[in-house]
Amino acid sequence: QVQLVESGGGLVQAGGSLRLSCAASEHTFNNYAIGWFRQAPGKERAFVAAINRSDGRTFYAASVKGRFTISRDSAENTVYLQMNSLKFEDTAVYYCAAQRDTRVAVTPDYWGQGTQVTVSS
Fold this sequence. Notes:
Helix content is about 5%, strand content about 50%. The protein has about 120 residues and is mostly beta strands. The longest helix has 4 residues, at about 30. It is globular and about 40 Å long.
C-alpha cells in the first residue's frame, strides 16, 4: 500500500509563499503519478498540480498556473508544491495523491491525510 504524508501547511499572509511536502513510500514514484489537490470549505476537492512518474512532466490548474510549482527531489521520495503570491482564495486543505494509470481519467488511488493552508489578508 502506498503511504503519503503531507507537511508544510500553516498560516501565511496574502502575497507570501509556502512550500508543501509530500513524503511517499519507497518506489511510489516508479509506479504512480503524484499530484496535489485542495478542498476549500463548501467546495469539492479540486485538482491543483501533478507530475508524471516517468518524464517529470508537470500539469497545473489554471487558477494556480504561474504561481505554484510542483517538483520532486533527486531521491524521488518527496514531492513539493512551492506556492508563491498566495491569495485568500488559496485557503484550503491540501492533499497529496497518487495514481497508477492516468490515461483514462484523474482518479487517484491513494491519498494523504491533508495539510491545512490558511492565507490571511
